[in-house]
Amino acid sequence: MDQKLFTEWRTLYSSNWGQSHIIRLRIRMRDLVDADVMRRAVDQTMKRYPYFCVELKKNGEYYLAPNERPVTVTNSLSGVELNTAEANYHLISFSYSDNWIIMDVSHAITDGTGAYEVIRTFLYYYLTERYGAELPKDGVRLVGDVVPDEEWIDPVARLADLSVPEGGQMANALNPSKAAGLENELRPTVYSIALSESEFMRFNAENNGSPATMVSLLLSRALSRLFPDNTDVIRVTVAVNQRSALKAPLAHQCLVGAAFLEYDENIRALPLKHQAAAYREMVFAQTTDEMALAGLANQNGITRMILSKQSDSERAAAAEMIDEMTKDFTSATVSYVGKLNYPEAEKYIRDFRLWTRGTGGAIVIEISAVSGKFTLDFIQPFADPMFVNAFLKELDENGITYDLRDVMQLETPDVNLPWKE
């Protein structure tokens, strides 16, 4: 069935050439990829996700229409540009090379939580045929399931008339690129850092931390050491899954809010254990249902402002303006979807990465937990390692063992949209 757009608008209109908002999941398998099995696994997987088998169409207003063409599978590390003939006009695609499997999906139509559901389904079909593996079906969305309305319905659209709460103006945050003089060094780069899951969780338990808050704290401490005389506040944004507040655990849309963690003078004076506790308290205070709904009201206000513009070019300009304003209020973003939680499949996986681009070119750390490892994908719009080195120094000084696995160019495909210039 056709899908009206609401949650998708801001992300679609803020996707510029070379800066499209894409989620890229990169999975390094134990063995070389069997292309034929992968093709069949993708076909089976997409039968389970009709709301992702869509193309962007316009009939007065844009909407998502059913797309019965096959989702593409290419032999490539680059993938294909989405919403093009090469992608069969889908907003999702798969690719592979050697033992790497890659899924690209527009961040406008889902988030990491939604993408993980698709990957679990894909792994079920791929591994059962490739290896004859007996994988549990519990908790995995499979063909033959009744796809409930709760997966389709946009839970934010029903809140579109929420009044935007009044709030104080945030002070500008430290901009790492600007502070380091790297604003014009446009070489997006990913530093992938592996940690033992058991060791890092033990460190968190001993120091009142959690994976996302501890990584945020260590990054804050690194930024503070790099720029001790900078007067702008160090503010790290932690991505928050809004499904709980929305009472919509099955929803597929991009439902990501934010908690803001400020490394102020009071926190700087504390030992790490108390700093971590303070960061966790900040997250708790900002993720109550009441606070989450207030955040959603703000997001909806932005969406309504964008939609009030008459032309695509005006809407894209409004979305770009919002992104420019947003980057003034955050020093970096940390995102942790949670564990893949499919241990029977994980024994066939050597490595798991999640890549995306930060709004306005911000630093992003994407945390994945698969096969007994945390992988921190330290994503930045430049190649200079000064921030990564400062972060690794924090790991060293706190006795956290790490392995810098590789340094790679951030490569994600674009989304072809009618209003792009």
Provide an overview of this structure:
The protein contains 14 helices and 15 strands. By secondary structure, it is an alpha+beta fold. The strands form three sheets. Strands 10-9-11-13-14-8-15 form a seven-stranded mixed sheet, sandwiched between helices. It has a five-stranded mixed sheet with strand order 5-6-7-2-12, with helices on one face. The protein has a three-stranded antiparallel sheet with strand order 1-4-3, with no helix packed on it. A hairpin with a 1-residue loop joins β3 (54-59) and β4 (61-66). α2 (35-47) crosses α3 (112-131), α7 (211-226) packs across α10 (272-286) and α7 packs across α14 (386-397). The model has no long low-confidence stretch (mean pLDDT 93).
Short descriptors:
single chain, 421 residues, alpha+beta, seven-stranded mixed sheet, five-stranded mixed sheet, 34% helix
Helix/sheet category: alpha+beta
Shape: globular
Biggest β-sheet description: 7 strands, mixed
Mean pLDDT comes to 93
Short summary of the structure?
By secondary structure, the chain is of the alpha+beta class. It has helices at residues 9-13, 35-47, 112-131, 149-152, 176-179, 197-206, 211-226, 243-246, 265-268, 272-286, 289-307, 312-326, 343-346, 386-397, and strands at 3-4, 22-29, 54-59, 61-66, 73-75, 92-97, 100-106, 189-196, 235-241, 256-262, 332-339, 349-355, 363-370, 373-380, 402-409. 34% of the residues lie in helices and 24% in strands.
